[in-house]
């Protein structure tokens, strides 16, 4: 809910001003302030991309049954990122289609896990309406917020809305575009909320209050899930791997794409995609 107004303001700026947020920051703020904002944005983006690449690497290791080592997973992730970004040369809509496929795969995978876990609907509903946190879970709560909030997406959103040609002088067209962007952002954040709900619920039901929770991490999460919920028709380990791979790939591509706009907007340097990837 807190992210929706920010995303809507980001879209409004892009449509009404015809420039994305990083460009407007360079124009409106003093040089030193723009540099400071650029440095903080790049630092946040690098931190986000590191965890996204790690997620993809672990997913590749899971799906290959450990055949690919960590370094090979990094190379595969980087190669995939270049291929997906190359699609932009054939139009932004092609890249949007790739994002749609990756997000759909991620949502279906985690929804499958949620169905396998069979959580109590009543407890889940009560937990959503009346959240309770003890002092011992503050660190985990902050971690969840940090995982969900991605500041670079604000810069990216203000830039992507300009891919559709809208005359800012025609108020009717601008308002119509903003209405559609509001619907688009609301649906996207709802899907994001559901995906996070699926993942959090599965792990909370399986490991909350158990001794295994102390040893649980991204690297061994799939194995713990498999031991807890069993194989079933399709082993939950591989469902987790597929969802994790889709999440990592979509986030890595998004981060690299946002990095181009951040650097180009704040300091007016345009980098090729293959150079911008380490961002």
UniProtKB/TrEMBL annotation:
<feature type="transmembrane region" description="Helical">
    <location>
        <begin position="29"/>
        <end position="50"/>
    </location>
</feature>
<keyword id="KW-0812">Transmembrane</keyword>
<dbReference type="GO" id="GO:0005802">
    <property type="term" value="C:trans-Golgi network"/>
</dbReference>
<keyword id="KW-1133">Transmembrane helix</keyword>
<feature type="transmembrane region" description="Helical">
    <location>
        <begin position="97"/>
        <end position="115"/>
    </location>
</feature>
<feature type="transmembrane region" description="Helical">
    <location>
        <begin position="141"/>
        <end position="161"/>
    </location>
</feature>
<comment type="similarity">
    <text>Belongs to the NRAMP (TC 2.A.55) family.</text>
</comment>
<feature type="transmembrane region" description="Helical">
    <location>
        <begin position="70"/>
        <end position="90"/>
    </location>
</feature>
<keyword id="KW-0472">Membrane</keyword>
<feature type="transmembrane region" description="Helical">
    <location>
        <begin position="187"/>
        <end position="209"/>
    </location>
</feature>
<dbReference type="InterPro" id="IPR001046">
    <property type="entry name" value="NRAMP_fam"/>
</dbReference>
<feature type="transmembrane region" description="Helical">
    <location>
        <begin position="229"/>
        <end position="247"/>
    </location>
</feature>
<dbReference type="Pfam" id="PF01566">
    <property type="entry name" value="Nramp"/>
</dbReference>
<dbReference type="GO" id="GO:0005384">
    <property type="term" value="F:manganese ion transmembrane transporter activity"/>
</dbReference>
<dbReference type="GO" id="GO:0015086">
    <property type="term" value="F:cadmium ion transmembrane transporter activity"/>
</dbReference>
<protein>
    <submittedName>
        <fullName>Uncharacterized protein</fullName>
    </submittedName>
</protein>
<dbReference type="GO" id="GO:0016020">
    <property type="term" value="C:membrane"/>
</dbReference>
<dbReference type="GO" id="GO:0034755">
    <property type="term" value="P:iron ion transmembrane transport"/>
</dbReference>
């Amino acid at each position: 809910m807190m992210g929706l107004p920010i995303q809507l303001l980001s879209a409004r700026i892009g449509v009404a001003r015809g420039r994305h947020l990083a460009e407007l920051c360079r124009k409106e703020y003093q040089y030193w302030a723009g540099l400071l904002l650029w440095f903080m944005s790049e630092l946040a983006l690098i931190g986000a991309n590191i965890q996204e690449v790690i997620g993809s690497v672990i997913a590749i290791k899971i799906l290959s049954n450990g055949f690919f080592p960590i370094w090979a997973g990094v190379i595969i992730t980087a190669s995939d990122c270049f291929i997906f970004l190359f699609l932009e040369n054939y139009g932004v809509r092609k890249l949007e289609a790739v994002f749609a496929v990756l997000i759909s795969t991620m949502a279906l995978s985690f929804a499958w896990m949620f169905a396998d876990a069979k959580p109590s609907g009543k407890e889940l509903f009560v937990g959503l309406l009346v959240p309770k946190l003890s002092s011992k879970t503050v660190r985990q709560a902050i971690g969840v917020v940090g995982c969900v909030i991605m500041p670079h997406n604000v810069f990216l959103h203000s830039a992507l809305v300009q891919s559709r040609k809208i005359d800012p002088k025609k108020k009717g067209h601008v308002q119509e575009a903003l209405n559609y962007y509001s619907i688009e952002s609301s649906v996207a954040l709802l899907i994001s909320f559901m995906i996070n709900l699926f993942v959090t619920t599965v792990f909370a039901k399986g490991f909350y209050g158990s001794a295994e929770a102390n040893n649980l991490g991204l690297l061994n999460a799939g194995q713990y899930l498999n031991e807890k919920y069993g194989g079933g028709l399709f082993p939950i380990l591989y469902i987790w791997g597929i969802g994790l791979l889709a999440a990592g790939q979509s986030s890595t591509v998004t981060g690299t794409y946002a990095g181009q706009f951040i650097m180009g907007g704040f300091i007016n340097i345009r980098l090729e995609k293959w150079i911008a990837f380490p961002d």
